[in-house]
Every structure is written in C-alpha cells, then in structure tokens.
Specification:
- By secondary structure, the chain is α/β, with parallel strands linked by helices.
- It contains 11 helices and 9 strands.
- The protein has a 6-stranded parallel beta sheet, sandwiched between helices.
- Strand 5, helix 8 and strand 6 form a beta-alpha-beta unit.
- The longest helix has 16 residues.
- Bound molecules: adenosine monophosphate.
- The site of adenosine monophosphate has 17 residues, from helix 2 and strand 5.
Length: about 280
C-alpha cells in the first residue's frame, strides 16, 4: 500500500491487483459512478472507520443505462471526485476505462431473479443486469472484506445482497442510511440536472414518504391507503410526474395489501427529463 495519507489512482485491472496485494486488511470497497456528494462521503467515512484500507471505484457503467442520452449526460468530474477522496483519506481509487472493465469480446451477464423484477427493474429493463455484472467484477477484482452501498438505492442493495449470497462472493455487503439535503431531498448525482423550479419542487418525494410513514405510525396498515397518501402529496407539485408509488415486502419487493411486517415505501418521480427515486422503511 502507498504510505498513509497518500491517495493512489489506478486504472487497470493489473494495477489494482498489484496495489491490493500488499494492502492492509480488512479492505473496504465503495463502488460509485463518480460526481461524488455527501451520500458517497458518508459511505466512504463508514468504510474508513471499519477498514484498514479503503478503495473507491469511480466508473460510469454503460451497461446499467438503458438510454444512451442518459449515459451521455451523466455528470462527471474526476478532479472533483479525487479531491473528495483525498479529503476523506481514501487509500486507492480505481478509475478504469470501459474497455478495462469489459475487455474485448466481453459476453457474460450476471442476472438476479425475482427481486430485480419489479420497481426499478420494471421501469429500467436490463438495469440490474448491468449493476450486478459490474459489481461482481468489482468484488472479484478488489476482494474486499466489506462493500458499502446506500439504502437510497434500496432495490440495488437487495439485488447485490442476493447476488453475493447466491454466488458465494466473500465480500460482506453493508447498507448505509440515505443522506439528504436539509429540505429532505435525497442526495443524488442526478440532482444537478434539476432546474431551479424542479429543485424547489423536489422535496415532495421526501414529504410524500414522510406523510405515509406518519399514517403508518398512527396505525394505518392498508398498503393502498399508504400509496394513496403518497400519490396525494405528490399531486401537490405540478412539476412532479410520478412513475411508480409502492408499498412492498422488504424481502421480495412484491406489492402488499396489508402491512403486517417490515415494508419498503418507495417512489420514482420525473421532473422534466430527470428521474428521482427515494424510499423509507417502516416496521423494521
Ligand atoms: P452512484 O454513484 O449513484 O452509483 O452511487 C454509489 C453508491 O452511493 C450507491 O451505493 C448508492 O446507493 C450510494 N448513494 C447514492 N446517493 C446516496 C445518498 N443520498 N445517501 C446514501 N448513499 C447514497
């Protein structure tokens, strides 16, 4: 490993393996697509607190984007990301090219079953195949004891947990709480695309979730009543175009009739061309 406090940036599989050969254990991995924000920072801080070596990957993964325009406009600034990683004492940044992650002729897909089907999986066909495939590659390359993912992408966390269990991957998957702006908007690299009006309207996601959670806390157990409450709050903002509003089982992500155990309240909402997601757990 590089001397303490010195960030090393590697770009190839071979350099990564070489850098990690002498790394102090345990190793913590934080996979990201860059344009790092306070949500990523919290993941990195948790990794730093729990590991001797912290690795951050920065890779905008084309395989998890259905829409080429979405991939094209995804915000990128390696300099900014490196600055945050340096501030946080990250040991190693893996910032590979597409060709390095997917060598010529690459033809393998990791596909997780039922839990990848609804919600984001239904709205974004192929998305979780792309996520699972790149995370499997990263897990293999880094060989970390721990990997850190945000609860913000709750279904992604479930998909990765399923994959890691099923494929006996030795990296432990750790979920971290969602980091929010003071007005409740969940931090996301995509927030940068919101116009001023859309940004002003965007806390409606968190408000809708909070309203439904409040109903749940007051004893409401009808999932449809909770979904209706979220739809009602979202309708208060004309710029918000809901894509789905869900109250689902936290293990299977199947929609519930009655909330008898832990449930995931989640929603996806469009503001113009920007698509935001958010979620809250209840009953856990
Ligand atoms: P991304 O760069 O958007 O692919 O995100 C990389 C990791 O950061 C994923 O595990 C995300 O779930 C996590 N993440 C993104 N936004 C947040 C947030 N607001 N709070 C906590 N974790 C987040």
């Amino acid at each position: 490993m590089a001397p303490a406090g010195v960030l090393r940036i590697v770009r190839t599989r071979a350099e990564l393996r070489e850098a990690l050969a002498s790394a102090e254990r345990p190793v913590g991995l934080v996979p990201t697509m860059g344009w790092l924000h306070e949500g990523h920072r919290a993941l990195i801080q948790q990794a730093r607190a729990e590991n001797a070596t912290t690795v951050v990957s920065i890779f905008v993964n084309p395989r998890q984007f259905g829409d080429p325009a979405d991939l094209e406009k995804y915000p990128r600034s390696e300099a900014r990301d490196i600055a945050l990683c340096t501030e946080e004492g990250v040991d190693l940044v893996f910032a590979p090219s597409v060709e390095e992650v997917y060598p010529p002729g690459f033809d393998t897909t990791v596909r997780v079953g039922a839990v990848a089907g609804p919600l984001e999986g239904a709205a974004r066909p192929g998305h979780f195949d792309g996520v699972a495939t790149v995370v499997a590659i990263l897990f293999d390359l880094v060989g970390a004891e721990h990997a850190y993912f945000g609860q913000k992408d709750a279904q992604q966390l479930l998909v990765i947990r399923r994959m890691a269990l099923d494929l006996a991957l030795p990296t432990e998957v750790i979920g971290c709480p969602t980091v929010r702006e003071p007005d409740g908007l969940a931090m996301s690299s995509r927030n940068v695309h919101l116009s001023a009006d859309e940004r002003a309207a965007s806390p409606v996601l968190a408000r809708a979730l909070r309203a439904a959670r409040g109903m749940y806390a007051r004893g409401e157990r009808s999932a449809e009543a909770l979904r209706s409450e979220m739809r009602r709050v979202l309708a208060e903002e004309s710029l918000a175009k809901p894509e789905y509003v869900s109250v689902a089982d936290t293990a299977t992500l199947q929609e519930l009739d009655t909330v008898a155990g832990p449930a995931l309240l989640s929603l996806a909402v469009r503001f113009g061309s920007t698509r935001l997601i958010d979620n809250e757990l209840v009953g856990s």
